[in-house]
Amino acid sequence: MSHSASQPSGSAGSASHDVVIVGGGHNALVAAAYLARAGRRVVVLERQDHLGGAAVSERPWDGVDARLSRYSYLVSLLPAQIVDDLDLRLDLRRRRYSSYTPDPADPRRGILVDNGDALATAASFLRATGDAHEAERFAAFSDRLLPMAAALFPTVTAPLRRAKEARTLFGDDGLWSAITEQPLGTLLRESLASDLARGIALTDGLIGTFASADDASLRQNRCFLYHVIGGGTGDWDVPAGGMGTVTAALERAARAAGAELRTGADVVAVSPDGEVTLADGGSVHGRLVLSGVGPAVLDRLLRAAGADAGGDAATPAPAPAPVPEGAQIKVNMLLRRLPRLRDSAVAAEAAFAGTFHINETMTQLDAAHAAAEAGTLPSPLPAEIYCHSLTDPSILGDELQRSGAQTLTLFGLQVPHRLMTGADPDAQRDALLAAAQSSLDAVLAEPIADCLFEAPDGSPCVEARTTSDLEGELGMIGGDIFHGPLDWPWASDDEPLETPGERWGVATAHERVLLCGAGARRGGAVSGIGGHNAAMAALELLGH
Hints:
The protein is of the alpha/beta class. It is built from 19 helices and 18 strands. It folds into two domains: 10-56 and 243-321 and 482-542, FAD/NAD(P)-binding domain (3-Layer(bba) Sandwich); 92-238 and 325-474.
């Protein structure tokens, strides 16, 4: 039987901590830093032997001095407010080139979006699409989103606005309707004329999200919205030193504030009264519990403690949450040099410096979705690649830098976790890796395998991280990088906003158990927003 949400058990008064945080990802560290700075007793419990969750830098290959952002890789949604509040020292570098997109029908031509040269961008649109006005349409589409992004992004670190308030922030009723009421494909077809340009825009709605352009669920719309509002501009930056520098800065902030950070602490049960049980038989008690693990994992932990994950008798049980399902593959590579392009008009250093779109026209993205829906691996596999070392060479050792080596990260789309649930995950991983390499080779002038760096043992420096790997290594159910379906960053007009958890978008069915990770209302990506908002709700519950 669960305890009353409004009246936690008597032991809460003598809790050893004010707040126990389950999971040690970047959001948990944000929450811990804010709470400790406010004078609260905070402990973070992390199952692995290191902190950071998916926001880490690692050396995947023995004897190779390359520190890759192994899982998460770019930063857009981390608010400057959190950076300033926690005195974080971060170097987030803007990329001059936004994207390069070779035409799958003729990879000798492509669209290079150069943020520093509008004329060159227009020329590439004309060369790739044959349309003298498509560059203008693309720029107008981006410009239409900017006022909305600038107005909406500051609200993500404040109590939830109502939908009617959010609509006024859009400042464009047509845009509100196009994004929140109609499938994204309609807006893209109205705004852009070419399949190539529509695909560039659609990818922002499909990162980690399994959907088609016209999916009636609008899950692609919600993903798109988060991708275009980051920082109020939609820019995605490279963290100098790798993603691990973000975690390191947050860890320093939390420790300096007095938070207790424990690794190797495997939580096996969470009670709504604040009792957190560890695999070694020990327990930790807090007046509040913040969950940095996904809602599906939290449900398991609550049930393991004998609690009803649906809440107390006085609280209506929520509808069962959809089973989380990621839809991506990430391939990390180290190259001896950048590969040659088929497009002789674009320098490789420019093409690879931004987001390199591969087989991602709107038609191809929708065809890949249909294939995966039917249980088939998409062919060609839509993917995009990033070369972080062009923006930040420091992730490579001096010798690698001198040799001309470069990192390459490939992110494949439309590969839902259901395709990885067979009896042989290694064979499935190999098939996905082969599909990714084949897709990339289709737009290069040479096989990517010919450019791979070799480790001292002679093995090529390439690895694939699938949804199964995320589930097994990081505890992300279904490999879902968002811990479940994304929701709009505002509340509906009739949604209850009575408790601190509800107002800040971090509520569970138990008032004293809050979400602080990617599964929070405005979670997802490397943002710290879930951690910030959970800390604000916790401080209200504890009393400032």
